[in-house]
């Protein structure tokens, strides 16, 4: 009898719990209150990685936000990152379906933004084994050596006349050349191919697009809102832009740079004026709806939307770019199919990424797989080419720029590094060889310390949950976007002690932390299934370039600027480059003949 009564009691309690769930199904992670329609978007401001760090201090390392209509969980501690990227890796292995990617690729092909599944697994495997494996990284060694030799040569020429160099621009060009050559076997300035459009698209694909977060606004096809996130009066743009970030000025004398600085002030004034006009337009648009014809303006929060012009909305822009990009990629593929590389002695390495991918064209992606008989198509190859350019293009430049900035700010670290390299290379009568890098532990620490403070992708690339998951008692619904704040994790004083904000490479002296995703205190390349497959290549390139620049030259800041005066502000985007370009004066320090070593 007692047993029956107990049974009934348990049954009744179970029914009550089921009807009134005070359980995990309702317990979302803590977070700030969301506004209708825009949710918490207005809180992100210009530096979302910093804002999210501050919010996490209040709400905890697993925090819930609503970005527009998109439920989002922000992860800000190593322990939490491990839960999402290791323990429940498979549950969070999807990517968001961004409008640009969907529009351009008509359904996410390639790797970076592809949905988790059979297709992604096989394309990723193909790239990891055939393009980015250790042996392939080695195979592209001569290319890195040659391009770096050319950079050293041009720096050397400039240093002879004591010029102030725009190191940011030079590094960008170097990185562009090396990436294009590795992927396509040619440089971007080969005008048979319209690659500028490709770079433009890659920029749009990475930009914040309001339509992804508030779909109803998508019908207006606004230009990317990252314009406002990035807007700070000295916004950087790509090559040849007129906003002070142009790629046309490579080397300048002190005088030229001073007059340019004046020009910059003028440009800032003009920009301020333009912004004021646009803010008026916004206010009018907020009141009356649409602005003048062909130009839409919108505004609901002064912080989030500084200005928004729509000469070409993202969708329109992508549609316009689709044809020239497709033509450029087709040209490249045809050119590869028609080239007999045995006759081409100028080729630094016989095979670039396109050659390798073409050798798998029309073959089953997995011959052992009975169920899926997908063969590698031309479209697949084009998507991978774009992925590789997009992923490799800005990442290394930004990292090298930050290492050089920190070294200029800390001359004692620069000296110590020069000393180590000189010892490993055996003097100052020759340039660094890539195989000597393994004997440079301090270089390793310097690069790690820089990536800790400036992870190139501060919020990684968003993940999306594939299932309903309960983590730490919080219920996370399927299709929730997951943002990992790698920037906040790298600066967490609980992990890195009170001097977490300080550049101090020696912290790694007795702590050989795995930078490639095995240690969640430090994840500049992400971790797990969606972690960066180019990490080894990226890390090797950064170290080689930094070693060469530091070994071949002494560096100083221009105009008698002190180390403390060097601007170290970052601009938020998919990557976090310096807000202002890095200017410096190099002095060649090797015995003269070594300059021509790598011609
Ligand atoms: C300093 C250099 C680099 C850094 C810091 C970096 C960082 C990252 C990060 C943070 C992610 C996202 C990880 C995640 O979502 O959890 C990523 C993904 C990716 N990276 Fe890199 N990366 C670098 C260089 C490269 C290079 C050189 C390549 C290839 C040539 C590359 C190819 C990729 C690809 C294809 C993905 C997407 C992976 C996927 O979604 O499955 N990366 N990278």
TrEMBL record:
Q: Which parts of the sequence are annotated with region: Disordered?
A: 237-265
Listed A to Z, the keywords are: Heme, Iron, Membrane, Metal-binding, Monooxygenase, Oxidoreductase
Gene Ontology molecular functions: heme binding; iron ion binding; monooxygenase activity; oxidoreductase activity, acting on paired donors, with incorporation or reduction of molecular oxygen
Its domain of life? Answer: Eukaryota
Q: What positions belong to coiled-coil segments? A: none
Q: What is its main location?
A: membrane
The residues listed in the UniProt record as binding heme, with positions renumbered to this chain, are 532
Q: Which InterPro entries match?
A: Cyt_P450 (IPR001128), Cyt_P450_CS (IPR017972), Cyt_P450_E_grp-I (IPR002401), Cyt_P450_sf (IPR036396)
Q: Which family does it belong to?
A: Belongs to the cytochrome P450 family.
**This protein's name:** Cytochrome P450
